[in-house]
Specification:
Blueprint: H1 13-23, E1 44-49, H2 52-66, E2 75-79, H3 85-94, E3 99-101, H4 111-124, H5 129-135, H6 145-158, H7 162-167, H8 177-197, H9 202-212, H10 215-222, H11 225-244, H12 252-267, E4 279-283, E5 292-297, H13 320-334, E6 337-346, E7 348-351, E8 354-357, H14 362-365, E9 372-375, E10 377-379, H15 381-386, H16 390-402, E11 407-408, E12 411-412, E13 429-431, H17 440-443, H18 445-455, H19 457-468, H20 472-483, E14 491-494, E15 498-508, E16 511-517, E17 523-527, E18 534-535
Helix pairs in contact: 1-13, 2-3, 3-16, 4-5, 4-8, 4-12, 8-9, 9-11, 10-11, 12-16
Length: 536
């Protein structure tokens, strides 16, 4: 006899009805209908932000509103992937909200972030022996601890940086010819990266660094696919942080040094150490078995949650089980809330430093309208397009506290040294009526692709360039050759957009186009001649 335990003793009726409605869409499940005797409770608040900064700002505003009724320790923000925590962490810092990460590390404490920062530090300061020791064998170059110890010993004896020892490695008999060859190769890499720094903007330079060091290949060799994907997402988010950075200097070396200083401000602070009464941030996977009075479920966008793995057009890469697992995870997230539940999604997010548009998660639509309350509060247009980023605001916040500059409600009262002429805009909430078709332009994915192919301004510029230099015929022939490099279903890598799948190969006006699905990054169209895609 099957006995169903359907009464729930922690959540309100509204929350349980929402959970029941969501999980009902799964086929592979045991029929179960949770109910509560705690009353219906508050409706579930659904908020559509313009971007991830607005999303984090909305969560912080509500945390401040609720703190008089609930302790911070009774509140939690849940998200699908670890990389989403950066914006939330920086928002907590900017708004003086103590927080803790449960089941994981803070963003700048994660190995892949520390590794790339170590590369940047070494390029900025060749005498940084600590950073060199961290990355000289990352990814693996068969340069072991014994070799590093010998290098350090020579460095101390001669009172010169380890990088100078490596640069003159042929002078030292302590190393075998094979080891010398590896050290020379490493030295050449660092020199080449330093030269790249002088010709590339910061985001392109960091992307280039990740590619030239073969860091992603190293991740793939040491981690399973899911773990590797999460770590690559963190690298992508780090590039987003670099894109938000506003330097005060024009010299490339000074820009890198200033960026590293801001990272140090955000990551190495004692005033935001974990406290007992602190807001909890965690992934949905870490939340199983826990419960909170107030839960914010952030990042409810198609391709983020549900995850892009469950949405891929590549048949071999998608199964119904994957989507059902995503829905079970949503069910877990919803039922972590005892009294209040907030769901947030954003129109656009940055991926590899570029803005991408998103549709709201299907899981929001699966909740009956009578259980939801849509929040129409939006920022005014000035704030939406002229606001500073959470990365800059959080570092400003810390610096202002250390220099006694007045800082109120997340805004600096006076000009700071961060960003040329920067003045934090006043934040005001306004009501913007929502029309029925406000999201229509994003709903039909197939129409979007067709319109993109037809009106793509990048493609038009490419065609104009072809005509201008008189290479149309040659390029068209080359395009045909390149079209054979990839076929539908191929897994590819792009330096800006990451990993994706070729979903279609099209012929448009004599040009071959690849349509590539990059998951969270969305569908992209590439001229075969200029695609710069690599088999992954």
């Amino acid at each position: 006899e099957l006995i169903k335990l359907e009464q729930n003793y922690r959540s309100t009726g509204t929350i349980l009805k929402a959970a029941n409605a969501i999980i009902r869409n799964n086929i592979e499940r045991t029929e179960k209908n949770l109910y509560s005797n705690l009353g219906q409770g508050e409706p579930i608040e659904v908020y559509e932000a313009g971007d991830e900064d607005e999303e984090a700002d909305y969560i912080m505003r509500n945390i401040h509103k609720l703190k008089h009724k609930y302790k911070l320790s009774e509140c939690c923000v849940l998200y699908r992937t670890n990389s989403q925590s950066r914006k939330l962490e920086e928002a907590c810092i900017s708004n003086s909200v103590p927080y803790k990460i449960v089941g994981g590390l803070k963003f700048y404490d994660r190995k892949e972030i520390k590794d790339i920062v170590a590369y940047l530090k070494l390029i900025s300061n060749p005498a940084d022996s600590q950073s060199l020791a961290r990355i000289i064998n990352v990814p693996k170059r068969s340069i072991g601890e014994t070799t590093v110890a010998k290098l350090r010993e020579i460095s101390v004896k001669q009172d010169i940086p380890i990088t100078e020892v490596i640069a003159e490695i042929d002078k030292y008999d302590e190393f075998s010819s094979g080891t010398k060859k590896k050290l020379k190769s490493f030295n050449e890499l660092i020199i080449e990266l330093k030269e790249d720094m002088n010709s590339l903007k910061l985001t392109d330079f960091i992307t280039n660094l990740i590619e030239k060091t073969k860091y992603i290949n190293g991740i793939k060799e040491t981690d399973d696919e899911i773990t590797a994907e999460g770590r690559i997402d963190n690298l992508q988010e780090f590039i987003n942080a670099a894109g938000e950075f506003v330097p005060t200097e024009e010299n490339k070396e000074s820009i890198l040094s200033e960026f590293l200083s801001q990272i140090a401000l955000v990551s190495d602070i004692d005033s935001y150490e974990e406290k007992e009464n602190a807001l909890t941030l965690m992934t949905l996977h870490s939340a199983k078995g826990l419960e909170f009075d107030v839960v914010f479920l952030a990042g409810l966008d198609e391709g983020i949650f549900p995850h892009s793995r469950s949405l891929s057009n590549n048949v071999s890469y998608q199964t119904d089980e994957e989507m059902e697992e995503e829905r079970r995870l949503m069910y877990v997230g919803v039922t972590r809330a005892r009294k209040r539940l907030f769901l947030t999604h954003a129109e656009r997010r940055k991926m590899w430093g570029k803005e991408q548009f998103y549709n709201p998660s299907r899981f929001i639509a699966e909740i009956p309208d009578n259980l939801k309350s849509r929040i129409e509060e939006r920022k005014n247009e000035y704030y939406r397009f002229n606001k500073d980023s959470s990365f800059n605001i959080s570092s400003q916040k810390i610096k202002s506290e250390s220099s006694n500059i007045s800082f109120t409600n997340g805004k600096l009262a006076s000009q700071t040294t961060f960003g040329k002429g920067f003045v934090a805009p006043q934040k005001r909430a306004v009501i913007i009526p929502k029309t029925q078709n406000s999201k229509a332009q994003y709903i039909n994915k197939e129409d979007n692709i067709k319109n993109f192919l037809k009106n793509n301004p990048v493609k038009k510029r490419i065609e104009e360039a072809k005509k201008k230099i008189g290479l149309q015929q040659k390029i068209s022939a080359d395009s045909k050759l390149k079209a054979d490099e990839f076929k539908t279903g191929d897994r590819v890598f792009h330096s800006q957009f990451g990993i994706g799948y070729v979903t279609e190969v099209k012929k448009v006006a004599g040009t071959t186009l690849y349509i590539v699905d990059f998951g969270k990054m969305g569908q992209k169209s590439f001229d075969a001649y200029f695609a710069n895609l690599k088999k992954f």
